Amino acid sequence: MDFELIHLDTRSRFYKEVSEMFYSEWRHPNTKAELLSIYVIRDTKDPELELRFHGTQRACKIGSGSLEPCDKAECNLCNILKNGFSIAHSKKTCMFGPGIYSSVVSSKANIYAKNHRLHSKKHVLIICGVDRGNAKEMKAAGHPGACDSVEGLTTANGGSLNYPETVIYDSARIKPLGLVVYTREGWIPN
User: Fold this and answer.
1) Which residues of the chain have pLDDT under 50?
2) CATH number, domain at 138?
């Protein structure tokens, strides 16, 4: 998939929407983030899609010094930007089974945003567009089958998660829309 990353002006409607979501949904205590810039993939916004964040491994400087994707096998970020999401790359041992995990909670997605062999204070989240289709709410681990997606419920809603997540089981129902570049403080790498 060919794409071009475009730097969003801070006055654009989409910048304001993503920025508001990023800051209001940064929920992990004793941590904070500073949004540095937002890039979008040309012609990807679909008003029917719901916004989510996806954290993954980055092994290049895309989003912080470069707008060109790399060809490194270990750069999951560029592989997703170039080829879209793939269920084949998801882990079978995840809480709700193999799927593509995302969240409205930016700080939850941040847990999975890793810089691989890259010394940078900047981190990158993928802004995703999600079509949940036939969605099922789940209170505990498992894959319910016969649905397009799962909404993992929080403990406050009778579930087992601290922060909500959306799991998509059909890669055609989630697409990368752009990137959020940010710095973080108070975070202990795992």
Assistant:
1) 190
2) 3.90.228.10
- Kindly report the backbone phi and psi dihedral angles of residue 183, in degrees, each rounded to the nearest multiple of 5, phi listed first: -115, 160
Query: Residue 189: inside a domain, yes or no?
Result: no
Total of domains in the chain: 1
Q: With contact defined as beta carbons under 8 Å apart, do 115 and 58 qualify? A: yes
* Gap between the terminal Cα atoms of the chain: 32
Which of these, 145, 140, 152, 150, lies nearest to 173 by C-alpha position? 150
Domain span including residue 41: 5-184
Which tokens go with 34? 């500073």
Q: Please return the burial class of 112, using the count of CB atoms within 10 Å of its CB with bins 0-12, 13-18 and 19+.
A: middle
pTM over 0.70: yes
Bridge pairing between strands 32-41 and 5-7: antiparallel
Tokens linked to 63: 């989003």
190 within some domain: no
CA distance 41 to 63: 12
- Separation of alpha carbons 35 and 52, rounded Å: 16
Q: Which residue has the tokens 């204070």?
A: 121
pLDDT of residue 89: 80
pLDDT reported for residue 90: 83
Residue 145: predicted pLDDT = 80
| Residue 139 forms part of a structural domain | yes
Decide if 180 is inside a domain. yes
